[in-house]
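Why do we bother with a discrete structure alphabet at all? Because it lets us treat a fold like text: something you can write down, compare, and reason about line by line. To make this less abstract, here is a complete entry for LUD domain-containing protein. Read it the way you would read a sentence in a foreign language you are learning: slowly, and without expecting to understand everything at once.
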Amino acid sequence: MTTREAFLSKIRAAQPAPRPRPEVPLFPTPEGDLKARFTAALIAMGGTCVDAAGLNDVNALLAARFPDAKVIASAVPGIDGTRPLAPDTVPASLQDVDVGVVRGRFGVAETGSVWFSEQEYIVNSVGYLSQHLVVLLDPALLVEGLQQVYRRADFTSARYAVLVTGPSATADIEGVLIRGAQGVRSLTVVWLA
């Protein structure tokens, strides 16, 4: 027996007996409208919320808010994009995307976060390599808090899942806040059923 095999054998032999995971309690949640709470939390994290009546409004918003955007990657049917997304798209090929457009599966009022899986992103790197991320979110799909997220069937069935809260940001020792240092520079949630 090699040293590696002996080492792993000792680890396997020392494992405790399996036991069920503890039940995560549902904590009391604040009163108030979920959409208003989500919006306040997202704004505190540097994000923006806007209302739209339909996909035409979203296309107009993209043209008005990002007039210099040359590459728009849209994972939402009906939203104009210049870069098509498909499951076989090479993730690194999205390195020059100015605006990524995706539909969030649901939002979390407690934190102002939006939940995505590989189904929403189509190509996971669109959520990180885009300069600006525009998220379509149905306000009826908001949950109270993170405890509800972990109870959802789509959370446990997704191969990949991420909660996104606002644009990427970092601050140095001097306290200078820089947006987009390690991800998207802006995050806009568009309320659209």
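What the structure line is telling us, in plain words: Residues 26 and 148 are 8 Å apart (CA to CA). The domain at 32-86+99-191 is CATH 3.40.50.10420 (Rossmann fold).
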